[in-house]
Amino acid sequence: MTDYYLVAALAILIAMALGVCRALLGPSVFDRILAINLFGTKAVLLVAIFAFFTGRHDLLDISLLYSLLNFVGVIAALRLVERGKFFANNSVIEKGMSIGDEESSDENSIDKQKGDQDA
């Protein structure tokens, strides 16, 4: 049975190496983010295999936590690429509005600018 774990771990390590190559050579930033996500997912699988191989099932909690951190990190990186910032600008936070309200306030200011140009 341990041979299966070792073969699976070796296959995951090869996939992780290919993911690192894609992260370094990726033509776009989205390819690189996807490769880093792949690397994180394979690391979770590797920790899970190690947990079953050693009989320490408490390591599964660590792998679940790492998968959550991987997801949050990818979402943060994509948000940074898309918007150029992680958080809402200070004016929205000072007004006590939520992040979803920021988009509606931006649309209202655009509508006001259009109305000013028409007049």
Question: What percentage of residues falls in helices of 4 or more residues?
Answer: over 70%
Please tell me the overall pLDDT.
80
- Anisotropy-based shape: elongated
CATH architecture assignment of the largest domain: Orthogonal Bundle
Unreliable residue runs = 90-98
Which sequence of SSEs, written as H and E, runs from N to C?
HHHHH
Find the count of extended strands (DSSP E, 2+ residues).
0
Total separate domains: 2
Strand content: under 5%
Classify the secondary structure makeup into a structural class: mainly alpha
CATH topology of the largest domain: Helix Hairpins
Number of separate helices = 5
Rg (C-alpha, Å) = 22 Å
Question: According to CATH, what is the class of the largest domain?
Answer: Mainly Alpha
Cα-to-Cα separation, first versus last residue: 78 Å
Largest sheet composition: none
